[in-house]
Specification:
Blueprint (H helix, E strand, L loop, with lengths): L1 E4 L2 E4 L6 H8 L6 E5 L2 E3 L14 E6 L5
Parallel strand pairs: 1-5
Antiparallel strand pairs: 1-2, 3-4, 3-5
């Protein structure tokens, strides 16, 4: 299935979860926020939230520094 993650097309297996989409981009476990189709997904729901064909996923990571 094709989804867009941070503006780039990605191929994920049918029934892929938000967790799988996040892992496609980063191995970070803290300071990460996700929105699917402009709706924020709580971290506790990443494993149970499945994606659909053509979903738009935004993965944001906090960066420290200045």
């Amino acid at each position: 299935m094709k989804v867009t993650i941070n503006g780039t097309p990605h191929e994920l297996p049918e029934g892929a979860t938000v967790s799988q989409a996040v892992n496609a981009l980063t191995k970070a476990t803290a300071g990460v926020a996700v929105a699917v189709n402009e709706e924020v997904v709580a971290k506790g729901a990443w494993d149970s939230t499945t994606l659909a064909e053509h979903d738009r996923v935004e993965v944001l990571t906090a960066v420290q520094g200045g």
